[in-house]
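Researcher: I need the complex structure. Ligand is zinc ion. Inputs:
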Amino acid sequence: MNMDNGLIETHIHLEKYPKSERDAMLEEARQGGVEAIVAVSMDMASCERTRELALEYPGFVLPAYGWHPEQPLAEPDELEALIGWIRERHAAGEAFAVGEVGLPYYTRTELEAAGETFDESGYVQILRQFASLAAELDRPLILHAVYEDASKAAAVLREFGVKRAHFHWYKGDAETTRLLAEAGYMISLTPDVLYEPEIQELAAHYPLEQLMTETDGPWPFEGPFAGQATHPLMMRSSIQEIARLRGLGEQETAAALADNARQFYGLE
Ligand SMILES: [Zn+2]
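Model: Output:
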């Protein structure tokens, strides 16, 4: 299959790859038809590394700046410094999105399964700050919010009037999925679309114009990808599977998904 200039990686933790591995991977990705990569961040140090990569690969790596929810709560001054730094990037006219932000679904449910209580109010407050920032700066917002947390996050988006939202690696029940689709939010599918029935269901039925692909690398995958380092070119297999599930041609599907990402992220 020829997907030249038809692939956009909409969520990867590029700064987490060792440099030698990353340089080779980006070269292969480019050669293989990846035209742009959205690189997300975890915290201040991660944002700074991601920005360096965006400067190193101008027009290829679009950075996203945020604070990942699956970690101990940020201190107020740490958060204030990060938001101030993002405002500086905006004032300087730099290209970026806001993310990865959201709610700590996996941290919370693991603790709850172990019989512990979990207070998520601090995380909701942080998400509110980033939603407010994204709305004010009119930047795309990238969310880590799955299952019941997706509807909690959607309520925060409505509160701040956020229209440009991307729920990365989204999973959730039919009602939440309908809510996101009707609100016009984007979702992205990872390579687990090849082996996870709940993701295949989304791939088959979520509005095509609101779908994108990603890898969330270096997060590792199973099934046909077991033991492989996660690479943006895995999106080729995802697109083949999405096309098969929807009964569409592969070229047509690749072109539609890339157009969605170009439009949503304002890529040329
Ligand atoms: Zn991520």
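Model: Summary of the prediction. Residues 11, 13, 40, 100, 216 surround zinc ion (CB under 6 Å).
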